[in-house]
Description:
Blueprint: H1 3-7, H2 16-36, E1 38-39, H3 41-48, H4 52-64, E2 68-70, E3 81-83, H5 95-116, H6 138-160, H7 186-191
Antiparallel strand pairs: 1-3, 2-3
Helix pairs in contact: 2-4, 2-5, 3-4
Protein name: ArsR family transcriptional regulator
Region (Disordered): 1-21
Pfam families: HTH_20
Amino acid sequence: MTEDDLNTPNGQTASSGEELRKHEVRTALLSLLAEVGAVTATEAASRLGYSSGLCSFHLRQLARHGYIEEAPHSGGRARPWRLKQDTPAAGGPTATQFGDLARGLEDESWQRWLTQRDGAPSEWRHDEAFSAVAYLTPEEMSRVADVIRRALAPYQDREQRPLARPDRARPVALITRLFPLLPHTTDDAEHD
Length: 192
């Protein structure tokens, strides 16, 4: 029996809700590690609002799949984790692979939403997806990103402080990608 088997009751396969929660927890853990460097399961639980057991389980799963590793520590029971620090030649995940993983989880969550939103409570059956193209300088692009971060700042403490969440609050994916659109090259035209 594996840890994955122990995470699903009576040997059942995980439901889509359980799968989503796995991705939600693992994505949150990877983001936290990218932000703060190293955390223990207890610290992650405190910051993310999950149980330390759940964080511990998913930290071990991320380590098992090569995304994180134990961080150096001075002994004792504390077991801090960090993003894998090996070189690309060593075969571990690179920053690009971490970005690809995050985007893949975002895209998977979006597809799950599209297929299951009819089953969501009526007040949650809409989304606020949009995209835009704006002509910006590099400095303006940075200012737009800062405005978005400041707009979200009043809600950030709710992640670490579950009691600060209003009764009807639910986790909502907020994905922003600001990048310059590059001109098509001759190679691109041949592939079209």
